[in-house]
User: Fold this.
Amino acid sequence: MVGIGQTEFSKDSGRSELQLACEAARAAIDDAGLTAAEIDGTVTFTLDTNDELALIRSLGIEELSWTSRTPFGGAGASATLQQAAAAVNSGAATAVLVYRAFNERSGHRFGQPMQRPPSARTNMHEPYGLLTPPQVFALSYQRYMHTYGVTNADFGLYSVVARRNAATNPNAWFFNRPITIDDHQNSRWIVEPVLRLLDCCQESDGGVALVVTSIDRARDLSHPVVAIEGATQSSVVDGDMSFNYYAGDLARFVEADRTAGRLWQSTGLCAADMDIAMIYENSSPIVFYQLESFGFCGPGEARDFIAEGHIDLQGTIPVNPHGGLLGEAYIHGMNNIVEAVRQLRGGAANQVPNAQRVLVAAGRSAAILSRN
Amino acid sequence: MRVEPPVVGEDDRFFWDGVEEGRLLLRQCAQCERIQHPPSPMCPACGSLEWTTKQMSGRGTVHSWIVSRHPTQLDEAPRVVAIIALDEGPRFVSNLIDVEPTDVTNEMPVVAIFVDVDGVRLPQFRPASR
Assistant:
């Protein structure tokens, strides 16, 4: 991973999503020390509105020999790295631009009722009042609370950590604005009895971009080499991106369990080998699930694991040192990858000393980045 | 109470026809008898495109639940949304009625009734004695 770029993260960018994508992409290509003409592949999200041709026409990329997109919103964020690496390793492309840009606060807000095409599956949920992502996901999270005796105040333990990290990250929307558990408990309910306002990620405007190329080429460029040591994803029969209610134990995140198993098996690494964990969080409970799926603690142990300080900056496995999607910004999880690269290069706002390996977990996808 | 009405299609018309008749019908494979809910056009177990329906008793327990409030129309009454573990095995998403949110508990027994909600006939569940 040779280039990272971003726009500012805001609530009202004042410019088009395409311009945000262009600015982030230009920054990432410049950071890599490449020219636009050297980019020959792109990867983004199915949900991204920025057409590949519109982007390359703006950036001056002359030709693409690879384009691909990851489904499933932010849960697929780390699958962008799997796709980019697959393109480079196969020879389909030599330098891949990964991008995600949106006006997700000043334009279409994810916190509002979802806009889904009609389907038999949608019909089985929306008429009953499952309209927004917090409602949709909280219906699973309540089963976790019931199974393990976890309360909303327990979920707030994570929110406090995220906002503490954001408070010392000038790149974060909530820079200088930490919260206490009392603040969390006094914030309004979004979905009783699961999520309060301070459990939920932000809605943000902004763009992020990355450049992926071969290790050999990376060694000739200026930055310390950050390698994608492994990347995988999981989608299972009877699963669903949103209405994931019908298979297995709802107190477990089955797709994350499987992603973790394959990631550890394919790399020969384990949770204890990680120096930092970037964990995608549309709301605080999903951090609990993923700490358990990736084996940082056992089933039902995340509450105590967080309470004991393990995920703090000085803990055994710092989580989201930039403040996460609650604290820094919600750029669909892609800002987590940027932070992972910053930590591995050194000089991040909340630098974890001597970070060598970072897990970037997004629920249905994950990658391990390492200093090479 | 505002309800997003279903946009009924080929894969779930049987379900809404059943609701109109006061019956909770799930899709069952005509070949291997697998119950497929939510419905899909092809059976993942045997590949069949032939379907019949199986009527559920309407009895089950609360597997998981939330209180749903509309994000911008806060004057709307909240609704309790629940995943019901039907006695026959499948899980089914619906609303709980005739119960205060503070009285809802996981595993409480419930039973289906059919109600017009904002002009849309829907299966709803209310507490049942066991």
Chain B has two domains: 8-55, 57-130. Chain B touches chain A through 41 residues (CB under 8 Å).
